[in-house]
Fold each of these.
Amino acid sequence: MLPIAVDAMGGDYAPDEIVKGAIAAAEELDVPVVLVGPAAQLGDTGGLPIIEASEVIAMDADPGSSVRKMKDSTLVRAAEAVRDGRASAMVSAGNTGATMASALLRMGRIKGVQRPAIATPIPVPNSPTPTVLLDAGANAECSAEWLVQFAQMGAVFAKQRYGISQPKVGLLSIGEEPTKGNPLVKETHSLLATGEWIGSTGAQFVGNVEGRDIMTDEVDVVVTDGFTGNVALKTLEGALKGLIGALLAAFDSSDEARAASAQLWPSLLPLYAAMDPENTGGAMLLGVDGVCIISHGSSSATAMVNAIRVARDMVVGDVVSHLATAIRPN
Amino acid sequence: MPAETHVEQGPVDRAYVLNLVRDRLADILEIEPSSIQEGDSFADDLDADSLALIELVEALEEELGERSVGFRIEDEDLADLKTVRDAVDYVVSKLG
């Protein structure tokens, strides 16, 4: 297997945590990894090879112009490595927009894909599989045709990543009835309802779903435009963080509560681990001609190991070929 | 032109640039190159949006950068490129 190219300078804790994660992944997962960045700044890389890249796109930089201007940036070089057959995938915890732009402009789109989308796993309590939410922020405004392609790609991802053989695909709206929603949602619903898009995905369209359905087993893939998807994602993240904070405060509020929580912890820890963004393995950019994993900006070494694991699995599972078949069967 | 700043593989004529633009655009839009006319408007005739234009620019910079080191299409000039002819004329003028 070709090495997985890891953007060593992406993220709030780069390069130390990223390099640490890359080294751990190479050992624990027995997968070749190559770091992308300025060798002089990476410290001890544990013998991992390095693709030199002298520029770093900042987390708050404008994605499009940065990718255009910084030809020697870590993100651009990582995407080029995949394009040129020197790497099997790229992983970054850096600027999400720039990661997307690099992948899009260097790897290119899978034939027939109009727009790539970010597919993010949303944990479902007490369920072995998460819900895949897409688009989680790549395209603020979408056409109905794009959303249909998101449905196809999301179903393929759910199947390949989580082993869901017949993914239930829902369209995010403000009500279950087909008449509910804005013009884009109504038009998309009518296209999805034909079933003509299903092909090799094995998906089943379950109709409109609401925000409260995302973290349930009612649906496996939730399709929406990037603006709404990003709002939904950040709302869920904030709500979970707030709830966990409130629970911890309650547990610490008295001696009785502390004693009771000690009994509860063993039951709660697996649930906490499932909800922890460090363990989800990041999001995948679906629709580019290569595997591109986007890890959370605050990724630690643990998160990087999990992101690299997902990259490996998507390469081994040849998810890009499955996506291409779903989009353009002939 | 000093050799160290200009790597040339032969003269670049307008016909070559037109064919290059046409081929790359056809690839991006997934249409036949022969269906692209020089006078076509990117937005109105070819349905090529801003993303397609950026993809075209990147492809041209990559291809022509090998012929002329430092060849670059400025982002602020993109808005003026409305037709295939505009793009060809711009590239030819940049290549000098």
Amino acid sequence: MIAASQPSETLQPRLSKALVLVRQAEAAGATHEETAGLVLLLNKALQLDEQATGAPASDGQRKAELLAQADETLGRVETEAGQLEVIAASRTFNNSLFAYLSAGILAIVSTLAFVLGVSFSRRYRIKRTFQMRVFRK
Amino acid sequence: MVSQNRRRLLVVFLTSLIVFEMVAYVTTTPRPREQFFQLYVLGANRLLSDYYPNNDPNIGVGDLVRWHVGVTDSMGSVQLVVIRIKLANQTIRPPDDLQAQPSPAPLVTEFRRFIQDNETWEMPFFWQIVNADMPEGSTRILEMQINNETHQVPGLTALDGHNFRVILELWTWEPQSETLQFGWSSGNERRVAWLQVWFNMTSSARQ
């Protein structure tokens, strides 16, 4: 839980970039479970930023360390989000391809079923015709 | 006869192909949906009741008020949300829904977090007034403690301590402009979410 002002100025561009990359991964089809880890890292970076903001001004080294850690965490988010986007996009493409190909195959199968149905129906009618008996009235 | 059969087959194949491809399109294309956030405040028992100690909105110095604040993300993507806590009296303007303007009330503190689509972030919001004085028949709040952290309030006064408000505003991070914005953008529209809970701090409560 964080109670502070805006993210520190040095962190803002990285934070925005990381958020955009995570959203791109989501748009490419990444699942909630896949992005959950990235959101955890983003929150960790926010927490580090808040700790850096709350650190006393005299403790400049600690502040710099915390900001460096936050920066590193955001860098990790960027890398993982990029990889996730590639995986998710490839999976989405494969799923779409499978769905459209399945539709084509189903169309062929249903046409064959129609042909078979018509053929059976014809045979049945021919059979019935040849089974007919003629009776004299 | 043969060409008629072929034509019939072609019609059957094309019809079923169109039907099945449409089904494939519908199942693989994400449906557009309304984008929004939900912001809520619950009482001590996480219900829409028990907002004040002993159900008395007249709060004294040191009375701990237990609320639970939550946000649900239905934007379809990960969002950085910020809940800004402001303290106001009766005369300070509340946020403007139509113009999407935040309240000019003084900011006491804020809480930030990244949340996923369809995720609800709920946090305890325990607060109390820790320092107030009473100049000339009015009550002035000077310090407020929220979740065990003390925050200065820039001298907010109310006549005889009536009609103070805690305002909760939902802000979101806009990565393109790299700024916090009040509310969120949904298509071309700006939408906002805010809440206010009234309380009194009269002289009888302070004794």
